[in-house]
Amino acid sequence: MSIRDLPKIGFLAREGFEDWKIEDICRALARIGYQAVEWSHLHFRPREMAPAELRRLVSVPADFGLTANAAGVPADYIVRDERARRQAIERTSEAIAAAGDAGICVLSVYTGPVSVRIPEEMSEGTAWQMVFDAFDQILPAAEAQRVSLAVEAACGMLAHDYYTTLPLFQRYASDWLGINMDPSHCILYRNDIPWSIRQWGSRIKHVHVKDAVGRPGRHGDTFIFPLLGEGLVDWPAFFAALREVDYAGICSTEFESFAYLKNVLKGDILAAARLSWEQLQTLLRTA
After folding, report:
1. What one-character-per-residue DSSP string does 75-142 give?
2. What are the tens digits of pLDDT across the range 243-273?
3. Rounded to 5 degrees, what angle do the CA atoms 115, 121, 124 make?
4. Strand pairing partners for 173?
5. Tell me: the pLDDT tens digits for 214-232?
6. Fewest CB atoms within 10 A around its CB: which of 6, 131, 158, 280?
7. The 3-state secondary structure of 130-165, one letter per residue
8. Which of 2.40.100.10, 3.30.750.80, 3.20.20.150, 3.40.630.190 is the CATH number of 3-285?
């Protein structure tokens, strides 16, 4: 197996790239070999950017031969402050409209919570009702704009693995609601990753490439996101399952080995992107 056999491999431009011009990010990633770039909230900022600026997030990467069809929306729908919850829904709706206008066709979202503990501070039923209320509003907006909402199951959140995403899909039968398949979180809950991919199938709208080791709890304490190949994810089996379900989207590398970035790479995010590319090629060559 080789990278040529896979869907397009991208890199998530997040912390470390915040002060870079988008032209410089795209030029650097293309030189490494990446075929796509995903924009985080550091570059995709609908409330602060004019429509023409947002459209450049798609057009500039294309100038360097990169695809840029995905961005992230850091909104938490499970909060005790009703005003804050309404604002999170509004921000997401605005992001959906901006993405549709800019040509970004996938928005990665979370259910939350970030700070509320379930069930200690809020019942699971109340939390799900908040999530349903949010998706009752944002999903029709996504359908109208033809933008896919890719829910990322993340450690500690209401939807945190394969099984806890099911209530969303039981409630909403929409082609515009899907999964951002990030194996690093699901593997902490010991999900069978290839099986989960086959179950989600065409609902997978986006993919993050990130490893993990440990158990659910607190990052840096009970688990970390190590370099690719050091964690629990079986990468050959992961990519084989994606091929089996005919996934044709982007596989976006997400570097969250923060201690390594700080202590070894001295904060050089481009070195992290280069290292991730080399690790992925090695893992696939030895499969």
Report:
1. -----S-HHHHHHHHHHHHHHHHHHHHHT--EEEE----SS--TTTTS-HHHHHHHHHHHHHHHHHHH
2. 999 999 999 999 999 999 999 999 999 999 9
3. 95
4. none
5. 999 999 899 999 999 999 9
6. 6
7. HHHHHHHHHHHHHHHHCCEEEECCCCCCCCCCHHHH
8. 3.20.20.150
